[in-house]
Design brief:
Layout lengths: L5 E6 L4 H10 L6 E6 L4 H9 L3 E5 L7 H18 L4 E6 L2 E3 L2 H14 L2 E2 L2 E4 L2 E4 L4 E4 H7 L13 H10 L6 H7 L1 E2 L1 H6 L4 E4 L13 E3 L10 E2 L1
Parallel strand pairs: 1-2, 1-4, 2-3, 6-10
Antiparallel strand pairs: 4-9, 5-11, 6-9, 7-8, 7-13, 11-12
């Protein structure tokens, strides 16, 4: 089922591999957008447009950090989606390749209509946050999540935690704090046999997984540092 009130906004850099996989993965998805940088390869941009993607291009932030690079593209994509009348947004990334995105949106719809929805929580180095590679929710809610650039004196903060604290408007410290503001979709995905591929060519955190194409639900979301 396609929902005309929901658009998927995909952000990040573009490479030949990513463009090819995105076109394949979202072939049957009606409402889709790529929000990326103005200096992206024009051939990639035209290829995405010719395959049904709306494209939003942004300037790089004046003071960069990993969080700010995400915020600029996501924020501008959300603004464009709101101007087009979309009520809900699924934010994904250019290195994420869903096997059945239409089914994913159908399965998690009741969660993201209620409050911002992610796959699961992450607990690392005594810090609790969430896996932000896919985030769904109302356009207005996600606009708040990605509302502010990370201040230069706070670039040490985990980006996902920074995004959530933008939304909550206070410090987030415990798993219960995280779950107060977010729904987790991992269990519903498992029940519905949904899988999503994450292109992870290098070891970052060691746990059993397929390299370079990691199974996001059955491998990453079952790692020891995941909670839900």
């Amino acid at each position: 089922m396609q929902y005309d009130d929901t658009i998927t906004i995909i952000t990040g850099i573009l490479t030949p591999l990513f463009v090819e996989e995105l076109i394949r993965s979202y072939k049957d998805v009606k409402h889709k957008m790529v929000s990326t940088w103005k200096d992206s390869n024009r051939i990639f941009i035209e290829e995405l447009k010719s395959n049904g993607f709306k494209v939003v291009l942004s300037e790089s932030p004046s003071h960069g950090s990993s969080a700010n690079n995400q915020i600029v593209c996501v924020h501008n994509g959300i603004r464009a989606a709101i101007s087009l009348g979309y009520k809900y947004i699924c934010r994904s990334r250019t290195d994420i390749f869903p096997k059945n995105h239409i089914k994913f949106l159908e399965v998690v719809r009741d969660l993201y209509m209620e409050k911002v929805t992610v796959l699961c929580g992450v607990s690392l180095f005594n810090t609790n946050f969430y896996l932000d590679v896919i985030m769904c929710g109302s356009s207005d809610q996600l606009l708040v999540v990605f509302s502010r650039l990370q201040e230069p004196n706070k670039v040490y903060k985990n980006p996902e935690l920074y995004f959530l604290e933008n939304y909550a408007k206070h410090l987030i410290e415990t798993q219960e704090d995280v779950k107060k503001y977010l729904n987790f979709a991992k269990d519903k995905c498992i029940e519905s046999n949904i899988e999503i591929i994450w292109y992870r060519p290098y070891d970052c955190i060691s746990f059993p997984r397929t390299i370079p194409y990691t199974n996001l639900i059955s491998e990453y979301c079952n790692a020891p540092f995941i909670y839900n």
